[in-house]
Write a structure and sequence with these properties.
Radius of gyration of chain A: 25 Å
Oligomer: homodimer
Number of helices of chain A: 16
Number of domains of chain A: 3
Structural class of chain A: alpha+beta
Strand order of the largest sheet of chain A: 1-5-4-3-2
Helix content of chain A: 10-25%
CATH superfamily of the largest domain in chain A: Oxidoreductase, molybdopterin-binding domain
Largest sheet of chain A: 5 strands, mixed
Number of strands of chain A: 27
Strand content of chain A: 25-35%
CATH class of the largest domain in chain A: Alpha Beta
Shape of chain A: globular
Largest interface: A-B, 46 and 46 residues
Distance between the termini of chain A: 45 Å
CATH topology of the largest domain in chain A: Sulfite Oxidase, Chain A, domain 2
């Protein structure tokens, strides 16, 4: 116990926590983010990341996403956690405590109790020492398991040792059974483990984005931190018995196994950026509340996808140009279902689906490996240049049709409206389903609210830029004076240090560009507003401000991105 | 003479001028526009149009473009002008006057002298009575012929009668010969007659746009008022001996006569909007001077084009998909030449040229008639969705190539740059040639600076909206409070009163939409800022303001369009 008390003075860089040093700032940020109101969190999160206290840890974190990903190695350990400590305790004479009693202890005032594998723990005194910060309060009054499952860093023997010090009782057998029953009846119980670095917007269904600084640390986003956007629980699909059904073409229904898709059609790889329609919704929420997940700027990622061309599969199913006389859409149905059995669904224009240059893939690989469960294992459609929502995951059925998908997400969601349209006046039929997305860019470094020392003289500004429909980003302008003057950033279309890839053919620029500029700090000011705006090769520009593009669903948030940073003057 | 003096009190609605009533405001506006500084003109022009004085005439003018076009009927009269008055005068004993002497009389102070067919006229006293206003001063000290040729309304017997009253002498024979010689050596001397309603930005080469109110009076812009954008003199092309050469394909050079184009290939018609890259440049000029013609908001028009598909002609010349392995561009050369013999030229991506859905035409018809001389007679390329500059007129040669056109207009012009780029720092190689244009819209009614009576209670706002690349305009938002709140306008995709045309296939929305909204006048304000902004089906939006998209060539001016109107309160 005495040893543990010392933790307070040792964190975050005690020898005990040597491995935790890199992940600490991120975990801390997640915690803060989940526990307090959103706009405050972000400020605090970024302040944390950029305060001198965390700088050392952050430097390591940003040195390479590889470092962050190392924590993924702990995932599998979760399955074979050492319960010896707990078994040993079971022979002791701790009192039996009901879940009702545990539930009463959910705050520092009432005490913070948690359960873990049938044990009850009063961790009130540990809260302040928790390397992950206040996030631990999310588990107060309930079970630790779901949180530790998300943040695999806990699955280490010394963490269990720490926990054992706080034991105060045994959960009643009846309540323990209930806990286990809840878990197994939870449709999300089979959702995969996720990388702890992700900022979670919603746990069930799981929606999360990587921290912005990490996002643009690599040109190809590692799958583990690629933003996750699930509408429903992740279905468990057996790749051996998986079947894809292709309907609506003269050849009748074509049914293909995963093996068929891999062997009967040439494999193509396409590097394509996917972006959620709601990326940057949080900026619209600041104008006026909208309906939807409060995405930051990182609901966008870039991966290399491998699979069969949808065009080839449609041709195999009997597609011919006559079909285009009556059919105008290709519908997709996922294997993910809600409680009524309704699947996720969407559609794209037939023209995009069958175009040789459309590059629509039935992808079974992401970044050179099988699709991860969160990204549609074993098969998803990747529609380059098109909003994420049409890139249906866990793809089970393709229907060539005269009509768009009738799904909620195609008909009554993911559409843009005028700022003057509200939920009383909206007519979803009056707007087209979002397909191609407009020009977008954002600043990932420095973070909003961070502080720069005047002695640095310059600031390095980094970010991403992308446009839908295969339109190539041709320029990113950056302003350090709130938009009065502009400098042109350096564009990057491959991993840093590698030569740029070949220019994509006209209309097939599916991947984002990262960008960077080192700009002199403006003199005689203590706060700088940094802005970025991108231009694509149709010379579309981002709108200046959020309110005029505000819409009730908070989609298509692509105004100039702005961050404010403070300049700390030298003390002398 | 006495009769003429009475004109002062009779204009503009004297029985004498009954036919002039409709055209008067427009001619007046042209005059003001040409004689004073640009930004002032526009204000004055619009004030004129909307002052009660002109309202009656304007109402007639706007009732239908047909009324305006009626003046075109006078064109041919110019060729057979009645010179009886002048012949008669020649027998009289007017003194001989040199051009040098005439040139000294160029102002109201020094007297305003002009020449016409060898006669010298002191029209000082007539200036104030001129129905076309001060524009008459443009001719001061020189010949009337070029101005009367532009404004055919003068070619009427009673105008010659009026002129004869002011005769003061005969131009010396030597100077008359010089005048005629100048005319014949002028490379622009064979340029066609133009419609007098056009606002002229440059006479040589001829560049002009219609008045905004007339522009959106018809969905299909009549050819006579379709904006004119010439880089060089209009070439005289004999349709019988005309040849088009198609080069760079495996089949060798294919040479086609106009007859070949009309008979060997199916005729297609496409309704497509063309827009000059410099449309709305005047708004950029107000931020900071740019290089280029000071276009208002009407360097955009919509026509129905008829001709052979470029794709069909390229296939006939031997195009096959293997060509796309090495060729990426299709270059066009016009028959219009500068003094060094250099022709106008441009190129488009091969992909656009050969795409079945690209709808690129080798057009020999405009609005159901042979192409007018100003629009490329006998053949031009029409590249729907692409900036006007690539729609090469008087087309003489097509070259399939690995390279873009090397012409000045492709390489060192018609490109977009950051607002921070100036003529000292610009690197034209760093930006792509403009092809597809971004989303655009503007307000054509009411005019900036006009006044509305409070008693009207509502204001009808009208305009156009268009996007490049076949992207369809899906919404136009209108604000009457400077952008704080927005209403959705009614879109119109056919002539008013006719049913809307069928929705264009995805990616083939080549024609603009006109729009209209009747909105209540905001209470308790004497000035209203009306703004429009459009959205296309890739949900691209117009940028809010001009300065952040300002560029040294003043192209791509597509910020929100704003007009300010005054509300005149009722007198009671």
């Amino acid at each position: 116990m005495l040893l543990l008390r010392h933790c307070r003075s040792l964190t975050p860089f005690s020898p005990l926590n040597i491995q935790r040093r890199l992940v600490t700032p991120v975990v801390a940020s997640c915690a803060v983010r989940l526990c307090s109101s959103r706009s405050e969190d972000q400020r605090f999160y970024y302040q944390q990341l950029h305060s001198p206290y965390w700088r050392y840890g952050l430097a390591g974190l940003l040195a390479g996403t590889g470092a962050v990903l190392a924590y993924g190695l702990h995932h599998h350990k979760a399955e074979r956690v050492d319960t010896s400590v707990l078994s040993e305790e079971k022979t002791s004479s701790f009192p039996t405590i009901s879940q009702e009693e545990v539930t009463k202890h959910r705050s520092l005032e009432d005490g913070v109790w948690v359960t873990f594998k049938g044990g009850v723990y009063d961790i009130t005194e540990f809260v302040a020492m928790h390397p992950g910060g206040d996030k631990i309060l999310l588990a107060a009054g309930g079970a630790l398991e779901p949180f530790w499952a998300l943040y695999a860093v806990h699955n280490q023997d010394h963490v269990l040792e720490i926990l054992s010090e706080y034991k105060v009782g045994e959960l009643s057998v009846e309540d323990l059974r209930k806990q286990q029953a809840v878990k197994s009846s939870d449709p999300y119980s089979t959702d995969p483990e996720r990388h702890p670095v992700l900022h979670i917007n919603s746990l069930k269904p799981f929606n999360a984005e990587p921290p912005p600084e990490i996002l643009t640390d690599s040109y190809i986003t590692p799958s583990a931190i690629f933003f996750k956007r699930n509408h429903l629980p992740v279905p468990q699909v057996d790749p051996a018995s998986f079947q894809l059904h292709v309907e609506g073409l003269p050849g009748g229904v074509l049914t293909l196994s995963l093996q068929d898709l891999k062997t009967r059609f040439p494999k193509h790889t396409v590097t394509a950026t996917l972006q959620c329609a709601g990326n940057r919704r949080s900026e619209m929420n600041k104008v006026k509340l909208v309906k939807g997940l409060n995405w930051g700027i990182a609901a966008i990622s870039n991966a290399t996808w491998g699979g069969a061309k949808l065009r080839d599969v449609l041709l195999a199913a009997g597609y011919n140009p006559d079909v285009a006389q009556w059919a105008h859409h290709v519908q997709f149905e996922g294997l993910d279902k809600d409680v009524t059995g309704t699947t996720y669904g969407a559609s794209i224009p037939l023209k995009k689906a069958v175009s040789e240059d459309g590059d629509v893939l039935l992808a079974y690989e992401m970044n050179g490996e099988d699709l991860p469960a969160d990204h549609g294992f074993p098969l998803r459609v990747v529609v380059p240049g098109t909003v994420g929502a049409r890139n249906v995951k866990w793809l089970g059925k393709i229907i060539v049709s005269a009509e768009e998908s009738s799904s909620h997400w195609q008909q009554n969601d993911y559409k843009g409206f005028s700022p003057g349209t509200d939920w009383d006046t909206v007519d979803f039929k009056s707007a087209p389903a979002i397909q191609e997305l407009p020009i977008q860019s954002a600043i990932t470094t420095p973070a909003d609210g961070s502080t720069i020392d005047r002695s640095q003289e310059t600031v390095t500004v980094k970010g991403y830029a992308w446009s839908g429909g295969g339109r190539e980003v041709v320029r990113v302008d950056v302003s350090l004076d709130g938009g009065k003057s502009w400098q042109v950033a350096q564009l990057q279309s491959s991993e840093k240090g590698l030569p740029p890839g070949p220019s994509p053919p006209t209309g097939q620029a599916w991947a984002w560009k990262l960008w960077e500029i080192e700009a002199p700090l403006p003199p005689e000011t203590q706060e700088v507003e940094i802005i970025c705006k991108a231009v694509d090769n149709s010379y579309n520009m981002q709108p200046d401000s959020v309110p005029p593009i505000w819409n009730l669903r908070g989609v298509l948030s692509n105004a100039w991105h702005r961050v404010k940073v403070k300049i700390r003057e030298d003390e002398e």
